[in-house]
Amino acid sequence: MTEQPTTTIIAVVDDEEATDPVVQRATELGLERGTRVVLYDVGATATPLESPLPTEFASDGPDRGVPPLLTAQDLDAAGQPILAGRVRALSEAGVDAYGWLPEKDDVEHLTEYARTLGATHVLASTGRAPSVGDLADADLVVEAVDAG
Questions:
Q1: Residue 2: its pLDDT value, please?
Q2: Residue 20: which of 144, 128, 145, 143 has the closest Cα?
Q3: Structure confidence at residue 57 as a pLDDT band (50, 70, 90)
Q4: Over the stretch 111-142, which tens digit does the pLDDT of each residue have?
Q5: How far, in Å, are 5, 61, 122 from residue 41 at the CA level?
Q6: Could you give the 3-state DSSP secondary structure of residue 78?
Q7: What pLDDT band is residue 8 in, cutting at 50, 70 and 90?
Q8: Fewer Cβ atoms within 10 A, N terminus or C terminus of the chain?
C-alpha cells in the first residue's frame, strides 16, 4: 500500500489576535483533509541586523541547518513563544502542524516557500491575503478569512 504524499496548507499569521480566525480555519481544514498546516508568521520578519530563523547554533549545529518546517520546540528555541503555542494547540487538536519564520514579508518569499513544500492552499486574513493574481503562477488556492 502506497502512502499519499502529504499536502500542505500555509496559514499566514502574526502574533495578533486578529489572525486567530485564520488559525481556526487552518485547524478545520487540517482536520477535514488530513493535511499538514504551516503557520507562516509574517510578524516575525527579520530586522536589518538579525534573521527571525534559528541560527545554526540554535538548530543543533552547523551540520543540521534550519529545517523547512519548525516544530513548537524549534520555535521556542527561536524566541517565538506565541507561534510555538499555536503550533502546539494545532498538534494537540490532531493536526500535523509546524511554523515558519520568513526572512521577508512579501509574496515572492511566500510563493517560494509554498513551492518548496508543495503547498496547495494559502489562508490569510482579509486585510493580508495575497491576491489570486499575485500567486497565480504558483498554482495555489488562496482563501481570505474574514477576521470578523
A1: 40
A2: 145
A3: very low
A4: 889 988 989 899 988 766 555 456 655 567 88
A5: 25, 24, 13
A6: coil
A7: very high
A8: N
Q: What is the rounded CA–CA span in Å between residue 19 and residue 16?
A: 6
Q: What is the pLDDT of residues 12-24, one digit of tens each?
A: 998 888 889 999 9
| Predicted pLDDT at 104 | 81
How far CA 101 is from CA of 61, 123, 124, 127, in Å, comes to 19, 16, 15, 20
Mean pLDDT for 28-48 is 85
For cell 486567530, the residue is 20
Decide: helix, strand or coil at residue 139. Answer: coil
User: How would you label 83-112 residue by residue, b for 16+ Cβ within 10 Å and e otherwise?
Assistant: bbebbbebbeeebebbbbbbeebeeebbbe
The domains located in the chain, with CATH, are 8-119+140-145 (3.40.50.620)
Question: CA–CA separation, 25 vs 16, rounded Å?
Answer: 16
Residues 51-59: contacts with CB under 8 Å, at least 24 apart: 51/101, 51/103, 52/78, 52/80, 52/101, 52/102, 52/103, 53/78, 53/101, 53/103, 54/78
